[in-house]
Design brief:
This protein is an alpha/beta fold and about 500 residues long. The protein has 20 helices and 17 strands. Strand 16 and strand 17 (about 430-435) form a beta hairpin. Bound molecules: ligand NAX and potassium ion. Potassium ion (K) binds near residues 59, 160 and 161. It comes from Myxococcus llanfairpwllgwyngyllgogerychwyrndrobwllllantysiliogogogochensis.
């Protein structure tokens, strides 16, 4: 699991390092600049020149340190300081002074010989301290870096490509597009969330002497990037002396006439993710079609007619007896009473419940029904459903994904999965897990149904929250990557995620 820190948390960690862990800022900057120079050297062609573009803050200070190390190694280095030198931070100022001792002279951008193929541009204009859209000389410097890159020079960004907002992954215009970004100490949200992740190029994290102890002292949401070993490690190896009861029974409340495939995909995904048993409860006129998709699916008919409502409560309570997890929502017939039914059901059940699709839309009008839940609740909205849950526009949700998902999770005391590129899993305790698997081929009908089925299966196998959920998300994405490798992104359909992706994944992980 890789720790990710926001700009404010980086400042707190720096303070902790300086005041309590014997690592003054000047030393952190020295280490950062040295790491930056190392990566810049790797990107250069034989005899390549270096152009280091520095801003007024500590990001510029890192650039000045990198320039010094590059000069010390005998490379041809030009340094440009953009902005008012009188406004330099004390650390940057000190490094400007130190650079003079190495013969480096700050020069105006226009007077530089334009770098080209084989040369490397170090972007040290702005890092985590960017507070507004770059304008004037700063915008010009960013445009120049872009121009040089188009002419063949490689660009390495110090910490964050200048113009990118490190807390969200959103970018101002103009923004540097980098070939590589050197993340100092810890990853930043903007390096892992799109479009930032793409603007960063290859992200290389370097240790700068800010240990884990400093990171443990920061406040606010705790962010992590999930790695393959984390997800694999969550899944238990099956013991010989076990039976289907060991692996849990999932109740799936899904499907309706015309949407029986949704229920089938949830159920098959749960069965292919290790659930011992799966039972679907659905309207009588849909049950046969749901079960016809797979011989392993058991069924319970919901005899009432029309949208799900209070009239289904007793049947659903009976269906939930002896079950270990509930997945509800995909393809259900939704009506005005569906939200109240879900609230009542959750107030009586102790098993973990995953709400997806129309179950989310059903509770969106009155989210307070979720507060009555006895057992743990997991919501798995896509951005449109998240917009309905929060009363925001989809665009607003997408531009503040981290904030929106963590606020909903902590506000309701539930686990929330905000789907999309870089799916976020926020737990009620403030932890947020960023997922890096998956591909655009998974933007296809039924893909979300598969995810809710995997979530249900892992919960039924008694894997704790939130681990079960970020593991399900990681596995679902990697299953998509494996399936896309065989089908192409265009050819990928949701069923492939189950039959090819998940199965290949479990083999790869020895599970
Ligand atoms: N926090 C830490 O522990 C460490 C931070 N370091 C570096 O310090 C960086 C953060 O430094 P700072 O907080 O000084 O911030 P930055 O260097 O990112 O930039 C902040 C400066 O730019 C100005 N500014 C912001 N947006 C502007 C805009 N659009 N136009 C013009 N001026 C603008 C601010 O007023 C401030 O003077 C990190 O990204 C990293 O590179 C490293 O030296 C290592 C240690
Ligand atoms: K930068």
């Amino acid at each position: 699991m890789l720790r990710v820190l926001t700009a404010a948390q980086m400042r707190q960690a720096e303070e902790a390092a300086e005041q309590r862990h014997g690592m003054p800022s000047a030393l952190l900057m020295e280490n950062a600049g040295r790491g930056l120079a190392d990566v810049a050297r790797e990107l250069a062609g034989p005899g390549g020149r270096f152009v280091v573009v520095c801003g007024p803050g500590n990001n510029g200070g890192d650039g000045l340190v990198a320039a010094r190390f590059l000069m010390e190694g005998g490379a041809k280095v030009s340094v440009s300081l953009v902005g008012d030198p009188a406004k330099l931070t004390p650390e940057a100022e000190r490094n400007l002074e130190a650079l003079r001792g190495f013969g480096g002279v700050s020069r105006a951008l226009e007077s530089l010989e334009p770098p080209s193929a084989g040369d490397v541009v170090v972007d040290a204009l702005f890092g985590t301290g960017l507070s507004r859209a770059p304008a004037g000389a700063f915008a010009e410097a960013i445009s120049a870096i872009q121009r040089w890159r188009r002419a063949g020079a490689r660009v390495v960004a110090a910490d964050v490509p200048s113009g990118l907002q490190s807390d969200t992954g959103e970018s101002f215009s103009p923004c540097v597009e980098a070939d590589a970004t050197v993340a100092f100490g810890f990853l930043k949200p903007g390096q892992v969330l799109e479009p930032g992740a793409t603007l960063c190029g290859r992200v290389r994290r370097v240790d700068i002497g800010m240990g884990g102890a400093s990171a443990r002292e920061v406040s606010g949401a705790e962010l992590f990037v999930v790695e393959e070993s984390d997800a694999r490690g969550t899944l238990p190896v099956r013991k010989a002396d076990t039976h289907k009861g060991t692996y849990g029974h999932v109740l799936v409340v899904a499907g309706s006439r015309g949407k029986t495939g949704a229920a089938a995909l949830v159920s098959k995904a749960a069965l292919r993710s290790g659930a011992g048993l799966v039972t679907v409860a659905t309207r009588s006129d849909a049950l046969e079609a749901v079960q016809s998709h797979s011989a392993e699916i058991m069924g319970i008919p919901l005899e009432a007619a029309g949208p799900l409502g209070m009239g289904d409560l007793d049947a659903l309570l009976a269906a939930a007896e002896g079950k270990d997890a509930l997945v509800m929502g995909p393809g259900i017939p939704r009506g005005p009473g569906t939200g109240a039914l879900i609230g009542e059901l959750l107030s009586r059940l102790e098993i973990p419940a995953v709400l997806d699709a129309d179950a989310l839309n059903a509770v969106a009008d009155d989210l307070s029904v979720l507060r009555r839940a006895k057992g743990p609740v997991v919501l798995t909205p896509h951005p449109g459903e998240m917009a309905r849950l929060t009363g925001k526009s989809t665009r607003e949700v997408q531009s503040q994904r981290l904030e929106v998902v963590s606020r909903l999770a902590s506000g309701l005391g539930v686990t929330v999965v905000l789907k999309g590129d870089r799916t976020l899993t926020a737990h009620s305790d403030g932890r947020v897990f960023i997922n890096t698997t998956g591909n655009p081929g998974m933007a296809t009908g039924g893909s979300g149904d598969v995810l809710s089925g995997v979530c249900g299966a892992l919960l039924a196998q008694a894997i704790a929250l939130p681990n079960a959920i970020w593991t399900a998300v990681y596995s679902h994405g990697l299953a998509g990557d494996l399936a896309a490798a065989r089908r192409g992104q265009l050819g990928l359909v949701a069923g492939d995620l189950i039959e090819q992706g998940l199965c290949e994944l479990w083999v790869r992980w020895g599970r």
